[in-house]
Amino acid sequence: MAKSYGLGIDLGGTKILAGVTDLSTGKVLGSAKKRTNSAEGAKELLGRLGDVATDAIADAKLPKGTFVTSAGVLAPGQVDPERGVLLTAPNLSGLGNLPIAESLEDRLDLPVRLGNDVQGAALGELRFGAGKGVDRLVCVFVGTGVGGAIIRGGELDRGPSATAGEIGHLVVFAGGRFCGCGGRGHLEAYASRTAITRVLLEELRRGRPSVLRDLLGAAGIDENAPGGMAIRSGLLAKAVAQNDELVLETLQEAGRYLGLALASAINFYNPERIVLGGGVVEAVPLLLEIAAPIAKREALAVPGALVEIVPSKLGDNAGVVGAALLGAQSVQVAGLR
Question: Are 309 and 274 in contact (CB under 8 A)?
Answer without folding.
Answer: yes
